[in-house]
Amino acid sequence: MEYLVRFAQVHESFRKPELQALAELCGTQMDFLDYSQYSPHCIVRLPDQHAARNLISRSILTQGIYELWGSGTTYNELHENVRRRTSTLWKDYESASFKFEVQAFMATRSLSEQNELIMSFSYLGFNGPIKLRNPEQTFCIFEDCDWGVSSPKKIYFGRFVSGSSRGVLDTYTLKKRKYLSTTSMDSELALVTANLAHAAPGKLFHDPFVGTGSFLVACAHFGAHTMGSDIDGRAVRGKNGRSIFTSFQQYDLVSGYLDTFVADLTHAPLRRTRFLDGIICDPPYGVREGLKVLGSRDGGSKEIRYIDGEPAHLQDHYLPPKKPYGFEAMLDDILDCAAETLVEGGRLSLWMPTASDEGVGDLEIPRHTRLEIISVCVQAFNKWSRRLLTYQRLRDDDIEDEVHQPIKQSRNSVAAGTTANELNAFRKRYFEGFRGPPQKSG
Fold first, then answer.
1. What is the three-state SS of 250-296?
2. pTM of the model
């Protein structure tokens, strides 16, 4: 059966990957028959209405899904197509309460024009009561137009099947959140990221750069159990009686919160065994301040210091030494961590920045022999953008060349140097205003 998906016209490069991720999560066979990132209308083939409802029920970037009754480039063509495809279905809705809607993309229709279009479908023979609120059936006319052109280039007619989860955005908006910071991830993108990572009941998710916990909240919303860590203890401990746990209490998601702890990625007290269903993170970009990792600059061990007879590193207010950390080395460490801790089929969803002129070619995407790249989504800003990379842990039997290290991005891994700019090419270009071609590290 063919269905029309009505997208929200935002985050266009995320929309198709989200649907694909949800179809895989639901175990549903879905085929794209017609899709364009420039149109809010997408035609897919699904087994039945049950599959359509399951697919769309937790989508964030769609508004709803409709059983496709017909399409055409003109209304004469549309009506002919509707008659040919659905005449056997009309009696099923003959006495049901109903309403019609008209949605025009890149154009507007006056009330009189809408009424005229609706009346052109009178041949359907619906005799039930018209109800504008809570009707049994809703039918919609979709017009896809070009800007400034009055006549539509494509017209669709469909019966409403199910709405999406887009309505939860008002619940999780950062404007109402009790614990957040200037770097808290937008709630819409956090929920989309959780969808791409397959957050679901019975799964365990970890954010190694947890910050104020936006990703944990998003994953818990979809039923996953969550935990997180961060090198910045202030974010983990909270302030003025508020912390990450406060957000879970605010949204009644406490059952999805396991714990958070202070640690950096390379020194996390987690067993390197396969126990995580997902890792979801937005690591620091190192722009405001250079990236740091626990350890001394010279790499050597230090003598234990004692304060009042107790080792300093065991006291509550101890601040461990930190050393500069390369941005590319961090990406490799994230992939290594995912390869060692994700179960087969587990997913890593990772945000990373890039200059807008660098494109999204394969050479710029971190790779690992045990991880398959599932999707690359781009959120563009002015001179730079950030990408959401989603990976899936391969089955051990599917790994052809067993290598225990990342492929190092074909960038020789760690950048040479000791300063923040030398260790982070993106940071250097950011403060240079992205002038001139990017220079490869190494």
1. HCCCHHHEEEEEECCHHHCCCCCCCCEEEEEECCCCCCCCCCEEECC
2. 0.89
